[in-house]
């Protein structure tokens, strides 16, 4: 068993965590470029916390320009064992009204212009995304929403769109037909990259608006979203505190801690040293294990 170090990725409306003790912003360099911001190190009780505002403080970075690879790499380098992501989302279901907090369990990825993997030419790997979130973290997150006084929905499918524009009405209705429940612009490829980095990941979405499928409602406007974000913010900060407080003192292993054991494809002799160097944080554990047991290397 090990200690928890929880990475919190804050979405729109969540740019700091006031409850952190010994809080200190630390800059982290990555081989994937600059993350969205420095990492806020601190602790809540006995649990170490690393906080990263996804859009940067002041919301400087639009969704398609968020450097998700740098963000996940920076959290891995900062010692994170698990990630809880918080995101503002739109609703594709009448019962998921603005102000509702939604624990996501599936994704439909419609992003098109974002690097979606740490792996590529010179070091190929394929991880499973059949169950894209950590059930253990999601259960803690759902309980934390309730403890914070939020209205909870669980088991939702998140449609990740490219943006930065909102949906057309035809797109919104199509996404409903596909089985999507909520819509956002940032959870992909973030969740994919967390899986490749062997970081169990959970996502709580904060509903700010109904997407434009409702003919009788006004179109989505930023002013209304900002107002709902402000209302959601206090509960979001409280749920983080409840989430941390509910964690067991010691972290038992997760199956997601070792997903790369059966994901690496490229034979050791064919691996590109430059590609391997970029993976020094993401795949450190599995490369070290291979060196310790050379007979078990993929080939």
Walkthrough of the structure:
This protein has 299 residues and is α/β, with parallel strands linked by helices. The protein is built from 7 helices and 9 strands; from the N terminus they run ββββαββαβαβαβααα. The protein has helices at 68-77, 135-147, 169-177, 187-196, 222-246, 273-278, 284-292, and strands spanning 5-10, 21-26, 39-44, 47-53, 82-91, 100-110, 151-161, 182-184, 201-210. The protein starts with a strand and ends in a 7-residue tail after the last helix.
* Percent of residues in beta strands: 15-25%
Under CATH, the topology is which? Answer: Rossmann fold
- Shape verdict: globular
Structural class: alpha/beta
CATH architecture: 3-Layer(aba) Sandwich
- The portion of residues assigned to helices is 25-40%
Outline the biggest β-sheet: 5 strands, mixed, barrel
- Total helical segments: 7
Low-confidence stretches: none
CA-based gyration radius: 19 Å
Question: Overall pLDDT, averaged?
Answer: 93
The string of secondary-structure elements, in order, is EEEEHEEHEHEHEHHH
Distance N to C terminus? 31 Å
What is the H level of CATH, i.e. the homologous superfamily? Nucleoside phosphorylase domain
- Look at the structure and give the CATH class: Alpha Beta
Q: What topology, given as strand order, has the largest sheet?
A: 5-8-7-6-9
- Domain tally: 1
Q: Give the total of beta strands.
A: 9
Oligomeric organization of the protein chains: single chain
């Amino acid at each position: 068993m090990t200690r928890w170090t929880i990475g919190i990725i804050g979405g729109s409306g969540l740019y700091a965590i006031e409850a952190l003790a010994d809080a200190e912003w630390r800059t982290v360099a990555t081989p994937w470029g600059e993350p969205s911001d420095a990492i806020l190190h601190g602790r809540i009780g006995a649990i170490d916390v690393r906080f990263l505002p996804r859009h940067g403080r002041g919301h400087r970075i639009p969704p398609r320009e968020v450097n998700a690879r740098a963000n996940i790499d920076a959290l891995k380098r900062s010692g994170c064992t698990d990630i809880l992501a918080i995101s503002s989302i739109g609703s594709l279901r009448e019962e998921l009204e603005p102000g509702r907090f939604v624990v996501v369990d599936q994704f439909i990825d419609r992003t098109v212009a974002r690097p979606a993997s740490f792996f590529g030419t010179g070091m190929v790997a394929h991880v499973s995304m059949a169950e894209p979130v950590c059930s253990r973290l999601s259960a803690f997150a759902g309980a934390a929403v309730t403890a914070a006084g939020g209205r909870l929905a669980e088991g939702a499918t998140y449609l990740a769109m490219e943006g930065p524009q909102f949906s057309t009405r035809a797109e919104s209705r199509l996404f409903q037909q596909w089985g999507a429940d909520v819509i956002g612009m940032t959870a992909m490829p973030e969740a994919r990259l967390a899986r490749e980095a062997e970081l169990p990941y959970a996502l709580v979405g904060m509903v700010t608006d109904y997407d434009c499928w409702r003919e009788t409602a006004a179109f989505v406007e930023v002013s209304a979203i900002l107002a709902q974000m402000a209302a959601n913010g206090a509960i979001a900060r409280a749920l983080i505190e409840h989430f941390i407080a509910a964690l067991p003192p010691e972290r038992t292993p997760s199956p997601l801690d070792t997903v790369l054991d059966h994901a690496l494809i490229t034979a050791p002799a064919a691996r590109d040293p430059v590609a391997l160097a970029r993976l020094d944080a993401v795949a450190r554990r599995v490369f070290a294990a291979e060196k310790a047991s050379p007979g078990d290397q993929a080939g």
